[in-house]
Amino acid sequence: MLPAGRVLTLAGRGTTYVRECGPVGGRPLLLLHGWTANADLNWAHCYAPLAAAGFRVVALDHRGHSRGIRDPRPFRLEDCADDAAALVGALGLGSVTAVGYSMGGPIAQLLWRRHPHLVDRLVLCATAQTFNTSARERALFALLAGAGAAARRLQPQRLAALAMAAMTGRHVDPASWAWAFEQLARHDWLQVIEAGRCLGRFDSRGWAPTIDVPTACVVTLEDHVVPPGRQLDLAAAVPGATVQPVAGDHAACLVQPDDFVPALLAGVGAHANAA
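^ thats the sequence. predicted structure below, dont judge the formating
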């Protein structure tokens, strides 16, 4: 069962959807989901274990994704980081552990860089410093430049099916995953496509070594989307970063929760929180 959710207006930014669970006095975790997903697809299996470990858990839908902020301006990862900062302020969380998955990893890194007083720990899952170094990746991100026209022609359910296939690496039966398709059908797909292009331009290699908060990297060792070597490069770049390995592909959070959740709990320091 999903935790309680609500629509929340962030002053001067727009309206998003937020899930919250766990004790109000617990150490706050801010969960930042990946590209083409939303908070629930990314974190549905994680909410309850994190809350049970004593954390105050907060997750939002990013702009353009599902019930996230709608903004006519071009999508920017920096705006997602600023949305997250505004949410932290609106809820009076003080400083948080920012947990970013895939695209949420750059957003978490940018949150630390742009609002360092709001981040006391980073947990970076299935993510990297850059996503556009191989020939295959360059071709993929180049295709996104012309994908807007195609998105206008396709039905939301068809786009949702393509997104699920990309996330899981296999065809997913819409009947069995009706709740997931419902989430994805809410996307502003033009914004989501632009988000992918922004992800292709992201590069923190010049400043990731300056990250000065405790950092854990949850590395998906069988990942065909973000190569494990690049995830490990991120861990090596951040001073003192620890590695929590997961024997799974890019969608491990969704399809292999029994493997992913223990690594996430270790990454956020659940044992320290319980103490």
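The mean pLDDT is 89.
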